[in-house]
């Protein structure tokens, strides 16, 4: 297991000069992480990362920054709505994915990662989000992106999330079967499969996802959760209700050296979260 972190969680809230991509990468190395989840728009301010901005020089500079700090880019994030109902807007979104895929190929990123959207411009869960029609819309939006990934020899990884169109393991299997491409992979985030209605049954939910999606999992996201009224609130690993035994055993026994990036950490608890997970992993 190689543990990484979302780069934009490093140095968040500190002085502007500490929030650059370069300064965050230096601290990620110092704190003992081996890889990062990179979202350009969250670590390089003032730029709209469209097809124009996503250029070869950016790719080479980023590649150099992370190599100098001994870090891999496990995920290059492009978390935009591929089920957007406005076709002109959808084309703009797809173009951003094409640019991210080009840059990912040049800088050697593991995958371009994305969630699976909602069938509305607001990218919010509504009464139609879990429908078969929404799933078909998402798949149609995804297919050209996967074809571009095949062209560049890189992978797109979708992340199932309860509040989005691909909300469980079965929905993700439907997408994999519909697209039928080795360049379509999965980011497996156990907590994102949970909501108040199934949180008490989380071992079964997570085990089912491992059984059905494990073969296709390229990256793991690791975080925790606490209950906040009728909602689950994501927090740093080791500070909530999660039992990591199942997911860590899967990683140890079936996914040698898989990259796992922490989410929902802050400057005060990121190292503790990493050490907590590494300790559990070693004890298995």
What is the gist of this entry?
The protein is of the alpha/beta class and 284 residues long. It has 9 helices and 10 strands.
Measured as a percent range, the helix fraction is 40-55%
Please state how the strands of the largest beta sheet are arranged side by side.
1-2-3-4-5-6-7-10
Order of helices and strands: EHEHHEHEHEHEHEEEHEH
- SSE-based structural type: alpha/beta
N→C terminal distance: 13 Å
Describe it.
- This protein is an alpha/beta fold and 284 residues long.
- Helix content is 41%, strand content 17%.
- It has an eight-stranded parallel barrel, surrounded by five helices. A two-stranded antiparallel ribbon has the order 8-9.
- Helix 3 packs across helix 4, helix 5 crosses helix 6 and helix 6 packs parallel to helix 7.
- The longest helix has 21 residues.
């Amino acid at each position: 297991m190689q543990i990484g972190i979302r780069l934009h969680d490093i140095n968040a809230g500190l002085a502007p000069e500490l929030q650059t991509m370069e300064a965050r990468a230096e601290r990620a190395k110092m704190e003992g992480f081996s890889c990062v989840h990179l979202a350009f728009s969250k670590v390089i301010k003032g730029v709209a990362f469209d097809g124009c901005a996503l250029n070869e020089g950016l790719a080479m500079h980023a590649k150099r920054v992370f190599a100098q700090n001994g870090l891999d880019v496990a995920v290059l994030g492009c978390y935009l709505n591929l089920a957007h109902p406005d076709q002109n807007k959808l084309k703009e979104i797809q173009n951003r994915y094409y640019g991210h895929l080009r840059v990912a190929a040049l800088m050697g990123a593991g995958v371009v990662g994305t969630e699976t959207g909602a069938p509305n411009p607001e990218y919010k869960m509504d009464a139609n989000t879990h429908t078969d029609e929404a799933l078909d819309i998402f798949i149609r939006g995804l297919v050209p992106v996967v074809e571009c990934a095949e062209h560049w020899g890189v992978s797109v990884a979708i992340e199932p999330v309860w509040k989005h169109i691909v909300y469980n393991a079965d929905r993700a299997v439907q997408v994999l079967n519909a697209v039928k491409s080795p360049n379509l992979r999965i980011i497996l985030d156990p907590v994102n499969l949970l909501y108040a209605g199934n949180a008490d049954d989380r071992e079964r939910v997570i085990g089912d996802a491992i059984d059905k999606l494990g073969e296709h999992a390229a990256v793991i996201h690791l975080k925790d959760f606490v209950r906040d009224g009728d909602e689950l609130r994501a927090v740093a690993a080791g500070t909530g209700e999660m039992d990591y035994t199942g997911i860590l055993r899967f990683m140890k026994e079936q996914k040698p050296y898989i990259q796992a990036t922490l989410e929902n950490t802050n400057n005060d608890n990121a190292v503790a979260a990493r050490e907590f997970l590494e300790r559990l992993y070693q004890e298995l």
